UniProtKB/TrEMBL annotation:
Signal peptide: none annotated. InterPro entries: Ferritin-like, Spore_coat_CotF-like. The keyword Transferase does not apply. The lineage of its organism: Bacteria, Bacillati, Bacillota, Bacilli, Bacillales. Residues 69-88 are annotated as: Disordered. This is Spore coat protein F. Belongs to the CotF family. It comes from the Bacteria.
Amino acid sequence: MSNHLAWHETLEIHELVAFQSIGLQKLKKSLPEVTDPELRRLYQKAIQGTTRNLRDLLVFFPEMPPFKDREDLDEMRSDSEEEEDREDPMTGFFAGELLGLAKTTVRNYGIAITETATPSVRKVLKRQLSECIDSHEEVFRFMHQRSFYPAYNLETLLKNDMRLAQRALSGRED
């Protein structure tokens, strides 16, 4: 066994942390608008569960290949002040939300196509899937050009995940 996480585990944890960090921020932003007591309880439960998930997953970051045996991991965690988004701080959040929607939509279309028996429906779904893939690429390029998604630099990508998760965890919950 290696003394660090496997690369595929690292990438899966990256996806989970990024997705849940955006989700936690959305839940916290929406909570003040939720007036139904039962729905509000469900939102609070989702916030607690997602918070717990993020904290559990962040524990693994020091074991990831780019960080293993690094003395400066704590310093990298505190770099958030210097590396804050150069634009409106919400731009990265909104772009990440849009990218998550695009990824989920592509997956859903892929599944739907495998369940389709009618040729005309399959044709429409394939066209729509292709359009969704193009949309995903456009959002990814937007994020990559603005350094919100440094896909070719795993260390920076994971540092961004830690910052995003810390921002989501520290955000208000009304």
